[in-house]
Design brief:
By secondary structure, this protein is of the alpha+beta class. It has one domain. The chain is built from 9 helices and 12 strands. The strands form 4 sheets. The protein has a 5-stranded mixed sheet with strand order 2-12-11-3-8. It has a 3-stranded antiparallel sheet with strand order 1-5-6. The protein is globular, with a radius of gyration of 17 Å.
Length: 288
């Protein structure tokens, strides 16, 4: 288990005080901006600041992320994966929503995105994904990951809403602002990223699938990614034997099982696979 908590609220750079209840405070002011700004291109709302330079993920790495062999998925199953919280009764929909709210500075978000990207790639196509890393002045400094800022997702069975609230660049005692949740997204965050569903409120990363299954914080130790590049980690996924690959894929199998539960089991070849069935058995069946 990691020595640091696997979830936290928007954390200030070293040397500054932090608050574990940042989202409700910050968003109250930000909602005024959201009302005035129309949602534009990309998966999240319009940025409130220009992002730092990012490197597009090479096509070869995207292929590795989206073409993991079925044998690896099935062998790993849900071994060691974190179990989500069921926050509402299951109501399958034709095209449910996968909501993610995090930040580029956050090392726990950095870890969680690996499982998100691999799980989402089983249901659709991600484009314009970028390399980034968590803040270098925080715990697990420079954790290699991706950013959903500016990306697009195409799927016939799933809608993705991804919000990166800040960059990883310090500014004014915190980090440069990037995106703001919509009022609807903030309402879900306020309701479900909180007690009694989780031990504390307003922590990131926060994932909500189909309004039913929720995660708060990283599902595995970001230390597993330390000292590696995105390309090196992606290259490990096909074999699925490294500790990092096993953690990423086990967690992604549980996310996949949750998506299958809320979208009516589509696509059948994914949802009926042995690895996803094993992960489905770990999902809670009654709301907390």
């Amino acid at each position: 288990m990691p020595s640091q908590p696997t979830r936290y609220a928007r954390k200030k750079p070293k040397g500054a005080s932090s608050s574990r209840r940042w989202l409700p405070i910050v968003i109250v002011a930000a909602v005024v901006v959201v009302v005035l700004i129309a949602v534009v291109r990309g998966l999240g709302p319009k940025s409130t600041a220009a992002p730092e330079a990012r490197a597009p993920v090479p096509a070869s790495v995207m292929q590795q992320l989206s073409a993991i062999p079925a044998t690896s998925w099935n062998t790993i199953g849900a071994k060691g994966a974190a179990t989500p919280v069921m926050v509402a009764p299951l109501k399958p929909a034709a095209k449910p929503t996968f909501l993610y709210i995090g930040a580029e500075f956050c090392p726990y978000c950095a870890a969680e995105r690996w499982s998100m990207v691999t799980a989402l790639s089983r249901f659709g196509t991600l484009k314009n994904l970028f390399y980034t890393a968590s803040a270098t002045n925080d715990v697990y400094p420079g954790t290699p990951t991706f950013s959903f800022y500016g990306s697009t997702y195409t799927s016939s069975v799933l809608d993705l809403q991804a919000v990166e609230t800040t960059t990883n660049v310090p500014q004014g005692g915190f980090y440069q602002p990037l995106q703001t949740p919509t009022q609807a997204q903030q309402a879900l965050l306020t309701k479900y990223d909180a007690t009694p569903y989780f031990p504390s409120s307003g922590n990131i990363p926060f994932v909500l699938i189909g309004g039913t299954y929720a995660w708060q914080g990283a599902s595995y130790d970001p230390q597993l990614l330390a000292g590696s590049s995105q390309a090196a980690i992606a290259a490990q996924l096909a074999a699925g034997t490294s500790p990092a690959a096993q953690a990423i894929l086990a967690n992604a199998n549980v996310m996949t099982a949750a998506i299958c539960a809320v979208d009516g089991g589509k696509p059948a070849n994914v949802c009926s696979s042995a690895g996803v069935k094993a992960a489905s058995a770990t999902l809670p069946t009654t709301p907390k």
